[in-house]
Each structure stands twice: as structure tokens, then as C-alpha cells.
Design brief:
5 helices; mainly alpha; single chain; 168 residues
């Protein structure tokens, strides 16, 4: 499988994550709306499960948003020095950020499995839902970050090689 095909597959994965994120944000309006109606109007009774459901959806929305941000390059990257102009320095700047993302992604993926196992032995208080529903978002995010950041690092190296050939 060529790197272009793999890149297209990752782009499709990210597009699917965008759709899922939009769906989750739309769904988040339901329990939050119920909470607002219950607390400020008294039209409906206060349902405590809506708070738990909103939390579950919110956790997944945050993790999926972070996955998308890694693909887009719009997260985890704060420039404290000016953008480099020379190809090697550009690779070092971008590569450093991507390697740091990969390091954190490995931590999330590896230790996230234990975290998810811990969630498996717990149930939420109101909904009685297994907590692994939200805890598993951590290792999944780690794996997706590894895929996305790894591919972006590969692209950065290819870009450097192409620029180095153009300069020579």
C-alpha cells in the first residue's frame, strides 16, 4: 500500500471523526437542554442521568476533537521561536512537535488500556452504565494520534527530502 493511499485512508478516517464529532455535539444538546429546562423552568422534572450522559458525550467529543486536531496540525503546537526557513530547520521544528505528540500518544495508548480496564469494573451512579464507555476513549485516542502523527512525521521527512533535492 502506497503512502498516498494510506494518507487518503487516514483522511477518510478523520472525515468520519468529523461527522461523529458533529453528531455528538448535536446529541449533547439534548441532555443539556433537558437540564436547563428542568432547573430553570420546572417544565420537566430534574433527571440526574442527563448530567452523566452529558459528561459521557462531552468526554468523547473532547477526545475526538483532539484526534482531529492532530491530523489538522491545529493542536499541541505552540511556536515560541519564529518559523524556520531552511528545510532542515523546518523538519526539526515540525519533527520535534510530532515526536512529542507520538510520545504522549504512546503513553495514552499504553496506559490507557489499564485505565479502560479500571473503567470496566465500575458503573456510573445514575445510569448504571459501564464506565469503560468513556474510559476507552483514552487508548483509542492514543492509537489514532499515533497513526495521524506518525503519518504527518513521515510526510515532513518526505518534504525535507524533496526540498533537499531541489536545493542541491
Amino acid at each position: 500500500m502506497g503512502h498516498n493511499m494510506f494518507g487518503r485512508m487516514l483522511e477518510q478516517l478523520c472525515n468520519g471523526l468529523r461527522v461523529l464529532l458533529g453528531t455528538l455535539i448535536a446529541l449533547l444538546a439534548i441532555p443539556v437542554g433537558m437540564q436547563v429546562l428542568a432547573r430553570y423552568t420546572g417544565v420537566i422534572p430534574v433527571y440526574l442521568w442527563t448530567e452523566e450522559l452529558a459528561t459521557f458525550i462531552f468526554v468523547w467529543a473532547v477526545m475526538i476533537g483532539a484526534m482531529i486536531a492532530v491530523w489538522d496540525g491545529s493542536h499541541f503546537d505552540v511556536r515560541v521561536i519564529p518559523d524556520a526557513k531552511r528545510p532542515l530547520l523546518v523538519l526539526l521544528q515540525d519533527g520535534f512537535v510530532l515526536v512529542m505528540i507520538l510520545a504522549f500518544a504512546l503513553i495514552f495508548a499504553w496506559y490507557g488500556l489499564e485505565y479502560a480496564k479500571f473503567g470496566y469494573i465500575q458503573n456510573s451512579v445514575m445510569m448504571r452504565a459501564n464506565m469503560m464507555i468513556t474510559y476507552v476513549s483514552v487508548p483509542i485516542a492514543g492509537v489514532v494520534w499515533i497513526l495521524f502523527a506518525g503519518y504527518r512525521l513521515y510526510e515532513a521527512i518526505l518534504t525535507y527530502k524533496n526540498r533537499a533535492v531541489d536545493v542541491a
